[in-house]
C-alpha cells in the first residue's frame, strides 16, 4: 500500500511541477503579416551615447516618420527592444523639437518613464506639438 501512495504522490507532484514550469514561461507567440501592405518611412539616425546604462538593454530597432492624420504635424515612432533575458528595462526619454532652420522650438519637455519587459518591444509615439517642427532629438537615460 505505501508504494502505491508513493507512486500516486510522485505522479501528482510531477504533474504539478510541469504545470508550474509551464505557467512561468515568459514566451509569447506573435504573428504578423509577412506581406505588409503599409509602406514604412524609415529614418536614418545619428546616435550619441552618453549613458551606457541604457545601452545594456535598450536597442533601437527602427525609427519611422510620417504626419498626423490632418497632415499638419510631424509624427515619429521609435521601436525599442529590451535585449535582456531577465530584467525589465527601465528608462526615461524626452524629446526636443526643431524648426526648418534647425532652431530649437522652446517647448518644455519632461522625462517620460518607460518599462520594457525582457525580450519585448515597445513603440514610443511622438507627435510634434506645433506644425513648425520639422526635426527632433530624443534622449534616453536609465531609470531606477
Automatic annotation (TrEMBL):
What is the residue range of the signal peptide feature? 1-22
Q: Does the keyword Signal apply?
A: yes
The alphabetical list of record keywords is: Signal
Q: Which CDD domains match?
A: DUF1425
Superkingdom of this protein's organism:
Bacteria
| InterPro entries registered for this protein in UniProt | DUF1425 (IPR010824), YcfL-like_sf (IPR038483)
Signal: present as a keyword of the record?
yes
Q: Which residues form a coiled coil?
A: none
Protein name as annotated: YcfL family protein
State the species of origin: Candidatus Spyradosoma merdigallinarum
Q: What is the lineage of its organism?
A: Bacteria, Pseudomonadati, Verrucomicrobiota, Opitutia, Opitutia incertae sedis
